[in-house]
Design a protein that fits this description.
Elements (H helix, E strand, L loop, with lengths): L2 H12 L7 H41 L2 E5 H6 L5 E2 L2 H9 L3 E15 L4 E9 L6 H5 L1 E4 L12 E5 H7 L6 E8 L2 E13 L4 H4 L2 E5 H8 L5 E2 L1 E6 L5 H11 L11 E5 H4 L1 H39 L1 H9 L4 H37 L6 H4 L10 H18 L1 H4 L7 H4 L4
Parallel strand pairs: 4-9, 6-8
Antiparallel strand pairs: 1-11, 1-12, 2-10, 3-4, 3-7, 3-11, 5-8, 7-8
Helix pairs in contact: 1-13, 2-11, 2-13, 2-15, 11-15, 13-15
Length: about 425
């Protein structure tokens, strides 16, 4: 028989019975563990949800890796590169690549009867994965994006629609200025999207690849570049290194040089800002662990003092200090376990409430999202539970040695 475990169960069963201190002490200790664990789980859920939501929005606009003209990636200007079937096949065949899609940019000015606005038109082809656009589409429908026929259909953001005072079905003129002079097109607004990522929403419109290619005066096998989607975003640097080895520094038959960049290199400020959130999480975890640990230490000391007579009797009967210490550590583990159960129920309940109702709102102009994003990550939740249990039990080892200073004779007179 495990004597410390047996005694701990008996103490737990009768904890607070007829006493004035132990019952509230146990409740406070359980509450400290529950609150600390719940805050940690909610913090991790919110930060992961926020990081992945913003990351996915950025990737939706630019892919995870871009292969384009060396000058385009270095200067930010729009230079053509050959992106024919053979190059697309090379990119698709690269290990770790999930999907490849062409794109072409051109700067232009949208003009209505009352206002005008400078924008960036992004031409996309039939192979383009429109899942991202469809998810954030607020009004209208997506057209059929073609690389061999123009549709004169335009998908704009809600921000652009508000600035120009236009809606789905409206027609407007677009003007483009390049070496060939001024070109004009008349577009019909067929869809309006909203991602709340202002640096993209304020300038980006979508149309077919054929139209932007012709407006740039490029050949049918040219584009600004190709966006690469990966099987796992964590492998972005590894896959990009394969492009560096097999694609970069090669030239097309126009004499242009291929190059590549990951989305982290293309938007470093945004990803650096997201990485800073990890520091906030570690600070919260440390503080909550400290709160839970201090609460348990205080609770254990109070319980030991209250059980001084019992400790004296056990010592008088021959129990060793080690046995008694283990008894109270087991008892504390029961309290921690109950607190963790409550903390998990509270955390998962609040996370689920936010996920399915969007109860807590945010200012999208500041946070890029309209509601607090949350994410379930049961592996991390399990690790948090395990870490909470181990740390809380570990910090109780030193206070438990207070038992060795209790003498049987003196404890009999303790009240």
């Amino acid at each position: 028989m495990n004597l410390p475990l047996f005694l701990a169960k008996r103490i737990a069963h009768h904890a607070g019975d007829g006493r004035t201190v132990s019952r509230p002490t146990i409740r406070i200790a359980m509450a400290g563990v529950a609150i600390g664990l719940a805050v940690m789980m909610i913090s991790v859920s919110v930060v992961l949800g926020f990081k992945h939501t913003i990351r996915d929005k950025v990737i939706g606009f630019g892919g995870q890796i871009q292969v384009a003209n060396f000058l385009t990636l270095q200067t930010g200007d729009n230079y053509p590169i050959e992106m024919d079937d053979s190059m697309m096949a090379v990119l698709r065949a690269t290990e770790g690549v999930k999907h490849v899609q062409r794109y072409t940019y051109i700067q232009g000015i949208l003009k209505t009867n009352h206002d005008f606005l400078g924008v960036m038109l992004k031409g996309i082809g039939p192979e383009y994965d429109t899942t991202f656009l469809q998810h954030y589409l607020k009004a209208g429908d997506l057209p059929k994006f073609s690389d061999h026929q123009g549709s004169n259909k335009l998908v704009i953001s809600q921000s652009i629609a508000n600035k120009l005072g236009i809606k789905v079905g409206d027609k407007l003129f677009a003007y483009f200025i390049n070496q060939g002079g001024v070109r004009m097109r008349r577009f019909t607004i067929c869809g309006i999207y909203q991602t709340n990522l202002a640096q993209y929403d304020d300038v980006t419109c979508f149309t077919d690849l054929y139209t932007t290619r012709k407006l740039n005066g490029w050949n049918d096998d040219q584009a600004t570049g190709a966006e690469i989607s990966l099987k796992d975003f964590k492998d972005a640097d590894l896959v990009e290194s394969r492009f560096v080895k097999y694609v970069n520094r090669t030239t097309d038959h126009y004499g242009e040089t291929y190059s590549s960049k990951t989305i982290r290199d293309i938007a470093p400020q945004l990803f650096s800002w997201l990485d800073l959130l990890d520091l906030n999480v570690w600070i919260i975890l440390a503080l909550m662990m400290a709160v839970a640990g201090v609460t348990m230490i205080s609770g254990l000391l109070i319980i030991i003092l209250e059980r001084t007579v019992m400790i004296g009797i056990l010592k008088a009967l021959g129990a060793r200090n080690k046995t008694i210490r283990h008894t109270f550590i087991w008892f504390a583990a029961f309290i921690i376990g109950r607190g963790m159960l409550i903390g998990n129920l509270v955390a998962l309940g609040l996370i689920s409430l936010q996920r399915f109702t969007g109860l807590v709102k945010l200012n999208p102009q500041t946070y890029y999202v309209s509601t607090v994003p949350v994410e379930y990550n049961f592996v991390l939740f399990a690790l948090l539970n395990l870490a909470t249990l181990l740390i809380c039990v570990a910090v109780l080892i030193a206070p438990s040695y207070f038992i060795s200073h209790i003498h049987p004779a003196k404890s009999m007179r303790y009240e």
